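Below: protein 1.
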Amino acid sequence: MSQSKLNQISPHVYWLPPDSTTDRPVLGAVAGERSTLLVDAGNSPAHARSFLAEVARLQVAPPQFLVLTHWHWDHIFGAATIGLPTLAHQETRRRLVEMAGWDWSDAALDERVAAGVEIEFCRDMIKVELPGRTDLVLRPPDIAFTEWVELGLGGVSAQLIHVGGDHAPDSIIVFIPEDRVVFMSDCLAPDLYHPPRRYTIQQLFPLIDQLLQCEADFYLMGHNSEPVSRMELATYTGRLKLIGQLVEHLGNDRTAILAELGRFDADDEEDLDCFLAGLKQV
């Protein structure tokens, strides 16, 4: 599958696959009869331009709106290049207003890593994707909301739903009910900005419930190269809940938890360590 070509998952929904080389995430387009909604702006002006070129190739209704799923750099750095009226959660807007005034030089990035404001992985990916950042412009969203917004695009709608989570408290999902597709971005990932990586039951369990309450057949994660079916998501999140429940009941006893799990793999152990890290910080 080409990482630079839009793929169609349903009658109205298209998605651009991620590229781990520079941490480019999944981007999306929801094409209605009157207008097209773009989902996330990409991690650079170049990423945004490539996305816009692909959308133009589809010959769908003109893009009229952009939605940002959360504040992390890889989803927002292309917003100024896209240049559309932009919607996001109010915390996303607050973050971007603050970040728009930051110095994005190598030295400043290194200082923010040392201060714990930025993490090494993101700094390194920013330097690869954007070796020169003197003209980087960050554009805060035009429209901010707190819980839920629905956009009618003509024959199809998009529900922008705040779900929060450990990864980013401002995370939203984009649910297209007519096509039974959800753009879930990175909401299901652990918190990366307060090492070690962590999950908390208080944040994760309600988020999982919200995701599965959507009557969707497919979910697009922010950095997965393929869509996830409803059954696949239910199986994965069920395992996450089991691990979280064992941590809640057995506490910081990793050996006892693994014994209760019985069969487990490296991914289970990684998720367990995230829950244990979250247990220490609650």
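Below: protein 2.
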Amino acid sequence: MAAGYGDLLRTRHAARLLCGTLLGRLPNATATLAIVLFARAEGGGYGLAGALTAVYGVGNAVGQPLLGRAVDLYGQPRVMLPASVLSALSVALFTVCGLSPLPVVFAAMLLAGFFTPPLEGGLRALWPSVLGREDRIHAAYALDAVAQEVMFAVGPLLVTLLVAAWSPTAALLAVNALGIAGALSVVVSPPSRRWRSAPREAHWLGALRSPGLLVLLGSFFFVGLALGSIAVAAVSYAEGHGGGLVSSYLLSGLGVGALVGGVVYGARQWPGVPERRLRLLVTALAAGYLPLMLVPGVVAMTALAALAGVFLAPALACAFVVVDRHAPRGTVTEAFSWLVTSFGVGAAIGGAVVGPAVEYGGTAAGFAVAGFGGCAALAVLLVTRGFLAVAEGPVVGGRGAENDRNAVVEPGFRAGHQA
């Protein structure tokens, strides 16, 4: 297993692209915590801090697919690096202004979120040209999903350490400087500079004209809703079970489960078409969320949280493959960016919905929101399975694969692959 991932990372440019992308995404992964800490240090209340993070999230949700479309049209370097710099400059303006005047502060947060570069979708568009073989691409998707779990665990810790060592202002500026460095590392690499999307049909809907992609977006909106609700419900659980670090135990258990599941899933090839496999993985994911409503003692609850996380990274990795198969020609980066947006919007709504659920029904009701999210994600896939069936069976590459076959890549690498 380790040898397989090691071989993948030893492929020329692979480790650089993965690490650069993770570093470039650090500002987005830590934005909520860093913004709240800065706002509180400036004397703002939690209401204002929450509003600022919400505006950042709205900007991010709008900007990701639009910037993804720009990448497909103009290439990665011409979009990714300028966007990263503009996002960091907007954060710098935020730190200079503090919390006044408020219109400027909110505008800075909106721009910071909007110009967050679509590095996540960009990396997945690059994997076929860098790795060539189908099995290695699928393993890279799994490794990508695992790396996200590590980043979202380590990122907030880094912000906390920077705040303790210097200040919330320094933490915001340092993290965004690292983000620029990560984006720069990616866009100056040969695969990124040489990659071009396939010619695309002019259509205002872009990637959204694919029914299969719309099904995926609907399903993973509810997966995001489930995860967003768990984060808040875990705090409620902690208040009734000793407080302190109890909520972090649950969230860490969730992350460890996803880490283990992703590593195991990506270490081998799985039979059958990915659309059918995705339904099975989301079924297991939904089944893992339901026992959380039992709210047992801390040890058992942590174990249930770990179990609930096991199928998250595999489901995401499989979804990446399905997106690649269903993205219309010339829209692969935009399609991946839409998945990021759908997931993020679902998480934000889940965090908002679970609060009233906990207030009226207690902690178990909060975790019931997660169970509902998992079941709804599965229901979307089952009810609309006909829209995904187009790529099932003996298909010679999906439409996203056509994207890769027509991309400009380095000599020696096979651009196309069969999903």
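Residues 203-409 form a domain with the Growth Hormone; Chain: A; fold (CATH 1.20.1250.20).
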